[in-house]
Every structure is written in C-alpha cells, then in structure tokens.
Amino acid sequence: MHVQKNTIKINRVRDLAKKNLLIILTLVLAGCAVGPDYAKIEPRAPREWHTEIQGGLVTGSLDPEILASWWRTLNDAELDSLMARAVKGNLDLKNAWARIREARALRGISKADFFPTLDASAEASRYRISENIENSGKGTESKLYTANFDAGWELDVFGGVRRSVEAAQATLEATQENLYDVLVSLLAEVALNYVEVRTFQARLSATEANIKTQEETYDLNLSRYEAGVIDELAVQQSLRILETSRSQIPALKIRLEAAKNRLAVLLGEQPGKLHGELADRQPLPELPATVVVGIPAETLRHRPDIRRAERELAAQTALVGVAVADLYPKFHLFGTIGLESVSSGDLLEWSSRTWAYGPGVSWNIFHGGAIRQYIEVQNARQEQALIHYETAVLNAQEEVENILVSYAKEQLRRESFAKAATAAQRTALLAVDRYKAGLVDFNNVLDAQRSLLVLQDELSQSNGAVVSNLIRLYKALGGGWESYGTIEREPGNAAESRPQTE
Description:
Shape: elongated
Oligomer: single chain
Order of helices and strands: HEHHHEEHHHEHHEEHHEE
C-alpha cells in the first residue's frame, strides 16, 4: 500500500511537471513581441470638397455598383467590350498578379520559421592520418560511414519571427492593393484612349466636311476666273486655304493610328489589331445626366493607392520589430540521431547509433553598434513610409479637386464653342452667298471658312475633353476595381487561383 501511494504521488508529480512545462512553453511562444505595435490609421480629410459642385455633379453617397462599373454610364457597347478584354489580356495586370504570387510565397517563407527544421544527411569518406602527429596511428588510412537526422527549433521568445510574418502579411495586402490600383489605372487608360480615337475621328469628319466646302469655293473661283469675271488673286487665296486644310488630314490620321495602336497594346494585342474593329467612325460616348462624387473621406478610403501606402507603413512598422529582436538572445532546441561506423557492413546495426540533444542560446553581444544602426535604418524607413502615406492622401485630394473643376468648366467651354461654331457656319454661308452676289469681296469668305474650321475642330476636341474629364474623375474616385474583385481565376493563367489575404 505504501509503495502504491508513492507511485501515485510520483505520477502526480510527473503529470504536474508536464503541465507546467506545457504552460511555460506556451508562455514562451506567446511572449511579447518587441518593437512598436502598429495601429491602423485613417486618412485625414475635410468634410466636403473645396471646389464648387456644378456641371451635373452632385454630392451624396457613392453608389458602389455605379462606381464599380462606371464606364457603363457612358452607354457604349464597344467600350464595354474593350474593358472586358483589357482585364483578360493586359500585361501590366498580369505582372501585378505575379507580384501577388511572389508576396504570398514570401509570407510562407516567414511563417516557416515558426516550425522546427528536420534535415537528413549521409556521407562515406576515406581519410589518412598524418605521420607527423604522435599517437595518431601514423599514416594509417581509415573509412567512415555516417547517416544522420538533425532537428532544430528556435523559440520565438522576443517575437522576431512574428514581426517578420506581420511584415510579410502587410506586404501581401499592399501588393493586392497595388493590383487594384493597376486595374483602376488600366480601365481609365483604355477608356481615355477609346475617347481619343473617337475624338480624332470627329475632327477628321469636321475637317473633311470643311475641305469639301472649300473645294466648291475653289472650283467657283476657278470658273469665274476662266470666265474673266475675277482676277487670279481670289483663285490663289481659295487654293491656299484649301491646301492648308488638307495638310491637317495626315497629322490627324497619324495621331488616330497611334491611339488605336496604344489601345491594342493596353489589351495585350499586337499594334494594328483593332484597326478594322474601330474603322467605322462612331460618335463619342454619351454623358450621364448627373455624377455623384461623394465626400472626401469616402473617396480617400476607397482609393487603392492610399490603402496600399497604409499597408506599406504597417509592413515597415513590423520590420522595426524584426530589427529590435536582434538585440536579444535567441533560444533554440536541437537534436540529432544517426548511425556511424568505419565499416559499411555494420552501419545499420543498433550498436552504430549516435545521438545528441539539448537546449542552446546565442546572443549578438557586440557588433560595433551595427544592430542599433540597423534599427535606426528601419525607423527612418518607417518615417519615410508614413510621409509617403500622407503624401498619397494629399495628392489624391488634389487630383479630385482639380478634376472636379476641369469637368465642370470644360462643359461651359464646350457650350461656348458650340454656339460659336453654329454662328461661324451661318457666317460662312452668308459670306459665300453675298460673294456670289458681288456684295462682298473674297476676304470675307476666307475669314468665315477659316474660322469655321478652327471652331469646329475646337468643338470636337472640347467634346472629347468633357468625356475624358469624366473618366479621370471616376479614376480619381478610385472606381473600377470592385467589379473585378471576385475574379476566380488569374488572367492568363486558369490554373492559378486568385490570391486572398488572410
């Protein structure tokens, strides 16, 4: 009975020791992580936009569905098709996906430091002992066969590994925001180049219409000169304005071709691929009656570039902790088990076994101040990341404020050009009629036709500028990335699943 009680006590002590060891190990693994703890920051923004809201712009809460697919408000089927193809084929977007895969792999490498390592090795060697060493066998030759399994585990007592994982996770999230930012820019660039194509087509049509009118005027003057009604001056003047107008056609076609080629490259296609598809001249996309712009704080939270900068700041803050952890000792456990023999025949026998295990500690006590200097490096980089974030917030506000002004004021400019072009067209008709009747000289016709061409060209450019400014406004509001936020497959690689942050 006495022996049984002692056995029970011993078992209880063993159980208690095991529990205490487990508690100690848990506390060690869950110990505090050195370095600063990051607290997520929100962008500072004014309560409302400084710019006067006008020109079809209205304040109010942004509609997520409209902002996600803002180009659909332009009601252009061709543009919708180009947008979808750009997301599938654009090379910059594929490159952003590759960066996400890289960031995920780097995060996995950081997490691997939480776990023990296990290595295997085997070696067969032959060696000779020097004859000049006493009591060493003097020139004898020997063989040695070994096979080992080595295990090691560094305890993350001061949180260096945890900080490293935090940095890798934040970097992954920043990389994902970079993908969204690339997507926002891509969609805006596709739309802007498409509007540029339609604008050049409109300018070509206006110029060709004026050339046709000027050709009629030249033919009229030539016939009147041949009939002896007028002298050669009017003929040469009409020829001069005609050829000047014709000289604009090649320049416009050059820029039109460049816009089409750029659009093809944005879609990941060879230059010239879209020429047939965009050959027919179509009007510019329609403008929506109203555009909701939201409030500054809402816009700043929505923009991927600002969220990316905030995640980069979080990553850099964690890297400060990684650097600080090098000031403290590192504790590790090690163990090895293997076989060792001078003969290959008995290597696998039980008597050939070897083993060793135990705890270890290492500490960087003196490195000439290099560790503290590296901590200072990481602190300086954290400060730079914070300044970069604050700069991104200010730049975003500036971008939105400027485009709000441009969108509203360009509409006023377009209205003036429209009225002026209408007046110029009427003036040109009256001048030609009066010139035919002999009531005015040909200079009136020249001025009227020259002004008409200039004003119609300016009107075409202003029409395109209004639509382009709306596109830039949606880009400044951070629109577009949400519509593709549920892509299940990476563009161009059906086997790769879309990365998800944890």
